[in-house]
Specification:
- With 474 residues, the protein is an alpha/beta fold.
- It has a single domain, classed as Amidase signature (AS) domain (Amidase signature (AS) enzymes), CATH 3.90.1300.
- The protein is built from 17 helices and 13 strands.
- The strands form two sheets. An eleven-stranded mixed β-sheet has the order 1-3-2-6-8-7-12-13-11-9-10, with helices on both faces. It has a two-stranded antiparallel sheet with strand order 4-5.
- The structure holds glutamine (GLN).
- Residues 126-129, 152, 172-176, 204, 311, 423 line the site of glutamine (GLN).
Length: 474
Amino acid sequence: MTKSYTSLSEIRREIAIGEVTVEKLVKGYLNNIAINAHLNAFNEVFENEALVCAQKVDIRIKQGIAGKLAGMVIAIKDNICYKGHQVSASSKILKGFTSIYSSTIVERLLAEDAIIIGRCNCDEFAMGASNENSFFGPVKNYADETRVSGGSSGGSAVAVQAGMCHAAIGTDTGGSVRQPASFCGMIGLKPTYGRISRHGVIAYASSFDQVGLITQSIEDAALLLEVMAGPDEYDSTLANVPVPSYANDLKAPGIKKIAYLQEALSSPGVDAEVKNALVNYIDKLRAEGHTVKSIAFDHLDYLVPAYYILAMAEASSNLSRYDGVHYGYRSPAATDLISTYKRSRSEGFGKEVKRRIMLGTFVLSAGYYDAYFAKAQKVRRLIREKTDAILSEYDFILVPTAPEPAFPIGRVEKDPVTTYLSDIFTVQASLTGVPAISLPAGNNNKGLPLGLQLLAGHFKEQELLNFSKYFLEL
Ligand code: GLN
């Protein structure tokens, strides 16, 4: 394995004293990608292109004209468009499809001299929590190859975990950046809904989808956020909230009020070592003088059902565009328009995606709309009001990222419902749009990473990052 760095500032220092070059870094990551190819983290590696870009960035650094991200080698989830490159959402239905434009985030990353080293495996159309629903097969966790990477941005998390890149970009609709980050011992940030442009990001459930990032340091998360965040004329869901210099403005957080969910400690569904990690941090925070109080969240049991009804409904609508005509795969057995639709979709989509399209179509159907979709929207509203009320009284909500560490590969197939339920702690931030971050919180007795999550009020990313940095140093 080639040496890996935990922050860009460390890399920049070594570049400045001639210890390393961007080209050498890229070669190191490519070497790690080759050694760890069996982990299945990448759908495609942009090997030659990354090397050519690295040489150019090295020259720009020497000339003193390099951007903020010079020296940062990034992997992107394979649902993010990059002009001239294939994008598949890990689905057969997009086989051979090449992006005709770049997402806004890719443009912003490249404009600051980041290097994109490849596109990462993920659950098909970002639907899943284990990266097993991929047309290209599961991603293995580098900490234990018999276990899942988490999902849906599993390839992105393992790429950082196994030193195949410096940081990675994923998407988080219901936890897909935070949960794999926690399974892989990394930092995973989902910003506020409306903070980062989704233009050129393949849609799953548009009222939830957010771009997120996976890093090894808070400084890098802050830097990437400030580069990617902010208004974009191509995404009307973005808020016109000024983007601070998150990285430069990192500072000590001061004394805070933190709420944690009583159920996270009392529920039998939460792993004992996850509970221990939570208790351990609660004790540390109290010892440091912070106010840490348990709260009851009455709507806890409704989080997962509300999320899945709404996400599946939105997915069924978003995925209607894959019809065998516009993009990607078309069934060779199709004979007319209707059979083109039916066969291309039946053969092109995987099992989980089809299950969700059918359930989503059902909850939107005339006879069931009020019973499911409309009701779930009302529940979402209540969850948001309750969450906002908590976050007006407390600075942060502290919960585990997931009820258990990375589970064995193969379990999801046997028991999909347990996997849906395991999203319990991540979907609250998704339903309400607030920012949330997963932070590494040690390993269990088998050496598997554990993660804890902090939620903050809308657009309070700076406070969240400040506190996260401090939290990781506790
Ligand atoms: N596990 C959740 C789901 O399957 C979250 C996925 C995501 O955030 N993309 O929908």
